[in-house]
Amino acid sequence: MGFLNGKRILITGISSKLSIAYGIAEAMHRQQAELAFTYQNNKLKNRVEEFAKNFDSKITLQCDVSQENNIKLLFLSLSEYWSKFDGLIHSIAFAPKNQLNGDYVNKVTYEGFKIAHKISSYSFVCMVKECRMMLNPNSSLITLSYLGSKRAIPNYNVMGPAKASLEANVRYIANIIGPEGIRVNAISAGPIRTLASSGIKNFRKMLAYCERVAPLRRTVTIEEIGNLAAFLCSNLSSGITGQIIYVDGGFNIATMNEL
Ligand code: NAD
Nearest-CA neighbor of 15 among 35, 59, 45? Predict the structure, then answer.
């Protein structure tokens, strides 16, 4: 029997088969979780409905997190299928493309900063706020982060502060919601080619750099992220909360791998 058998998990952020959330859905489906999905807008509706079929799911709900009432409505609609559930995957981030290249100090605008933080960080706590009453004990909430939260990385720019905010959010939510038996963690993924990452200037060079420097001498896959997410949503990880866990081939610990 799969180790997620009997768990109901809501997955956000699938927009293609390259999406990290798609790898998470595959891993969770393998472990027999029951899944539901959100899609950002009507352009993605049919695609996500087709993907959901691959995972034996009929639950696909629209939610654009830039509209706070969409988040409220999402959980109202979900409650028609599930009165309670066991896990949320927040795999959503956005910053305007003009913010993701060049000189951070010159490029950043208040509007860009606000959008990046609202979509990539605030939306996580807002979702938790709206679904808190629907979460079973032993539920697990997961978001996706990146090393740019802690290190200055070329072109990642305003997404760095947004991911730092997201990681602080993980700790604050974990501390408040822990007494309810609910765990909250972030997976900090190494760079992977997806629709979102292709908006970052010189992303290919970033991948090549990681292959040279990471202890494992390679980049990671959405399957590897998915496997950790499945573990973190299972009772196997019952003692883990408030953590930022790296799946990056060890890149975050490396400096001079050879001289
Ligand atoms: P992706 O483009 O496949 O997924 C990003 C998702 O965010 C899309 O499904 C998109 O619809 C959704 N989204 C954006 N704005 C939204 C909004 N207003 N409302 C609802 N949904 C919205 O890319 P991905 O790389 O799979 O990104 C998923 C997460 O992983 C993001 O948080 C990203 O920062 C993080 N991450 C990615 C990498 C990488 O290299 N790809 C590395 C570390 C962390």
Answer: 45
